[in-house]
Amino acid sequence: MLGRFLDKFCTGLRILLGVMMGALAIPVAMQVVSRYTGLIPTYLWTEELATFLFVWIVMIGSIVAVWDGTHFDVRITRNATGPLLRLFQDGIVHVAIMIFGALFLVYGIEYTEFGGNQRSVMMRANLAITHISVPIAGGLWLLLSGYRLSETVAQFLNRENKQT
């Protein structure tokens, strides 16, 4: 049940990513047109908006990648053939993601407080808008990777039970 909820949640994040990528095209297009044609004046807020959107796109994309198992997973050895080696290989990846998620969550809170005391130059937006993406991503990495680790352990235990 939790797995289905998390899968639907990540599907929603994928849709949000698509919307944000489309939204990112607008200020970037305005910057290009203003720089090279002179048809519209140069608006400096478009650069800040593009930066804000880009930061969120990167963080949300990393959350989806953790769920899909396509982020942070670097194989330095051949794929394990035995179930115990596979558990060890996948377990290390999930635990490493969980450690980084915890670090991003804990230190991201302080980072967000730091950003909350600042405002962007042109839009005068509170920078906590982008800084808060760090602890949110860290918390979700922790949750999603913890779930994937539990799946990996359950899969190993099921194989062991079938063999005995």
Description:
The chain has 164 residues and is mostly helical. The chain has one domain (2-163). 78% of the residues lie in helices and 0% in strands. The protein has helices at residues 2-36, 45-68, 83-116, 128-131, 133-163. α3 runs antiparallel to α5 (133-163). The longest helix has 35 residues, at 2-36. It starts with a helix and ends with a helix. The model has no long low-confidence stretch (mean pLDDT 91).
Mean pLDDT: 91
Distance between the termini: 28 Å
As residue ranges, the low-confidence spans are none
The shape is elongated
Helices and strands, in order, run as HHHHH
What is the secondary structure topology, with strand pairs?
Blueprint (H helix, E strand, L loop, with lengths): L1 H35 L8 H24 L14 H34 L11 H4 L1 H31 L1
Quick recap:
With 164 residues, the chain is mostly helical. It has helices at residues 2-36, 45-68, 83-116, 128-131, 133-163.
Essential attributes:
mainly alpha, 5 helices
